[in-house]
Specification:
Layout: H1 5-18, E1 42-44, E2 48-55, E3 67-74, H2 76-86, E4 92-98, H3 101-112, E5 120-123, E6 130-135, E7 141-147, H4 149-154, H5 157-161, H6 164-168, E8 173-176, H7 181-193, E9 198-201, H8 205-208, E10 220-221, H9 225-235, H10 252-272, E11 277-281, E12 287-291, H11 308-317, H12 326-332, E13 338-342, H13 355-368, H14 373-388, H15 400-412, E14 415-419
Parallel strand pairs: 1-4, 1-8, 2-6, 4-5, 8-9, 9-10, 10-11
Antiparallel strand pairs: 2-3, 6-7, 11-12, 12-13, 13-14
Helix pairs in contact: 1-7, 2-13, 9-10, 11-15, 13-14, 14-15
GO molecular function, one term: kinase activity
InterPro entries: Carboh/pur_kinase_PfkB_CS (IPR002173), PfkB_dom (IPR011611), Ribo/fructo_kinase (IPR002139), Ribokinase-like (IPR029056)
Protein name: Carbohydrate kinase PfkB domain-containing protein
Length: 420
């Protein structure tokens, strides 16, 4: 039988206090005092070196073919943090790398970008997480191998607890599901007790199920269709939810309605389990935003810090969607369940690997910059479009004017699917 919530919280608390410290970082800065720490988003999860292989001719079993192989800075949490930094938001990263070529490469970029490395543990005799991917000529993933054991072995509660002052003072906390279950729970409890909103990024179908013990602490999560269903099933002891792509829904409008009917039971069930906001990514069909009550994601508005990038977004997006009243409606839905649809933007696809992470990074950066939830998701959709048109996971140059124009188009085409 599962432990009652209060006993589990107490067990995690004891775990935090009694665990011996992990191996000391090879390179670290002294912890700053609480008074010196400014509110900033905290991102906890994997930093990964991606190896991308893209053949120039169809691959042949048992032999090599010509093509392009390159190193790309990756990892869900790392990608999201980098995306936020390129949008003017300065996240604090808690992660781990090895003392090897891959770890040095990832840290070198972090320092060159002027980002804090205080929360990044670098240890001897540990392989930095590496993922090797093979793509087809269209940029779709064909096969991949992931070696990310360092995250589960070293991103343990005692390391995360060292940055309790960062988490308790954060504008928001984002956790990726690569973290071990005890670390997810420890970080959630720290944020929850300080009233800090938590976003859970599912990462994969299997790892998305790690939400089960922490759902009551999670403010928002950002699954795709199959991750959404897996999360719902992990929390449901009896009813099982299903998702099957319906080929008969050829028309875009009809496809969105079909998806909503299929996913609605799982979405509503997760809201009943305590999650306040769902941002469900649908690939070329856009995004569903689902909330049971209006969620003021940034509870402490003084922690919002407008940047030059977000200022341009606010100026360009303000008042551009009065016809559908989406923001007004979401603010008034205190006792209703509402679902909104935001369409995707047509793009010339080069690589899809960073699109989901850029969407989340765009959403979180916009929220930290003072935008409401629905405009923030529209910004995320616009950043995802820029990502798929880039070879890198995170585009090198992101134009605020271009993002604002794309987000404006998304908002003008957005629709309310359900509000009862």
């Amino acid at each position: 039988m599962a432990e009652p919530a209060n006993r589990r919280m107490e067990a995690v608390r004891r775990h935090l206090l009694l665990l011996p410290p992990p191996l000391p970082p090879l390179r670290s800065n002294p912890l700053r005092s609480h008074a010196e720490v400014e509110p900033s988003p905290v991102i906890v999860g994997g930093m990964v070196l991606d190896i991308h292989a893209k053949p120039s001719v169809p691959p042949q079993p048992g032999t090599t073919v010509p093509g392009m192989v390159k190193y790309v800075r990756g990892g869900v949490a790392r990608n999201i943090a980098e995306c936020m930094s390129k949008l003017g938001t300065r996240p604090f990263m808690i992660s781990v790398v090895g003392n090897d070529m891959a770890g040095d490469l990832l840290l070198k970029y972090w320092r060159s970008a002027g980002l804090c490395t205080e929360g990044i543990l670098q240890v001897h005799d540990v392989a930095t997480p590496v993922v090797s991917n093979v793509f087809d000529s269209n940029g779709e993933l064909v096969a991949g191998v992931a070696s990310v054991g360092a995250v589960e072995k070293f991103l343990i509660p005692s390391w995360i607890y060292r940055f309790h002052h960062r988490i308790s003072n954060a504008s928001l906390v984002m956790l990726d599901a690569n973290l071990p279950a005890e670390s997810l729970e420890a970080a959630c409890i720290m944020a929850y007790k300080s009233g800090v909103p938590v976003l859970f990024e599912p990462v994969s179908v299997v790892k998305s199920q790690r939400i089960a013990p922490i759902a009551k602490y999670v403010t928002c999560t950002s699954p795709n269709e199959i991750e959404l269903v897996a999360m719902a099933n992990s929390l449901s002891p009896t009813v099982k939810y299903n998702f099957q792509k319906m080929e008969q829904c050829k028309d875009k409008t009809e496809a969105v309605e079909c998806l909503f009917e299929m996913l609605r039971p799982a979405m509503f069930f997760l809201l009943e389990k305590g999650i306040k906001l769902l941002v469900v990514t649908l690939g070329s069909n856009g995004v569903f935003i689902c909330c049971k009550e209006h969620t003021n994601f940034m509870k402490d508005q003084h922690k919002c810090k407008q940047t030059p990038f977000s200022r341009q977004l606010v100026q360009k997006l303000d008042g551009c969607f009065p016809s559908n009243n989406l923001v007004k409606l979401s603010r008034e839905s205190s006792s209703r369940t509402c679902v909104f649809h935001l369409p995707a933007i047509s793009a010339s696809v080069i690589s899809l690997t960073g699109a989901g992470d850029c969407l989340v990074g765009g959403v979180l950066s916009a929220l930290c910059g003072g935008l409401d939830i629905i405009p923030s998701v529209a910004v995320g959709v616009a950043i995802a479009k820029a990502s798929v048109e880039s070879e890198a996971n995170i585009p090198d140059d992101i134009s605020a004017a271009s993002v604002a124009d794309d987000a404006k188009g998304v908002l003008l085409s957005a629709k309310t699917l359900w509000c009862k």
